[in-house]
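Morning. Coffee machine broken again, so started the prediction first thing and wrote up yesterday's gels while waiting. Chain of 186 residues, entered below exactly as on the submission form.
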Amino acid sequence: MEKKALRLKYKKLRKNLSEESIEEMSLQIANQALKLPIWDKTYYHIFLPILAKKEVNTEYLLHILQGKDKSIIVSKTDFDSGEMKHFLLQENTVLKTSEYGIPEPVSGLEISPEMIDVIFVPLLAFDQKGHRVGYGKGFYDRFLEKCGSNAVFVGLSFFEPEPEIDFEPRDIPLNFCITPKKIMAF
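Came back before lunch.
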């Protein structure tokens, strides 16, 4: 299926989700994540959700990472350059919501993508082969491309996979995708 059509479909599906169902499914996704073979790593990148877009609430995953004493990385997006910078999330890290509704660190200790072991990836839709559809700006594809060859990419989705998504050679596939009901490995 074409990405443009999928973006419209999944934005509409998300729009119809209640706050209660978002919280419940986000907790289920975090609980599913505990089953992944990723917990021996050190550096974990997590996205902070855009509330207006009804993204997966990663607060539950954040608590798991903190409880396991992992190094947590969050990003700051530069819409002019099309790149993301990544910062270690510390107790004194100040977060500010950008004009795009993205909670981001104001400053901090910058971490290179090559150091990051596990990346939790936001998405609108994914397919049975691990291809994903985001918002279409390519920020995550450019970021994932810079990660080390052993990095693990984990998508988080409220919905089940599409049979197939049209993808381009530069699109970076996921290793796993977690839904409230299951984990898919690719």
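The two ends are 19 Å apart (CA to CA). Going to sketch it on the whiteboard this afternoon.
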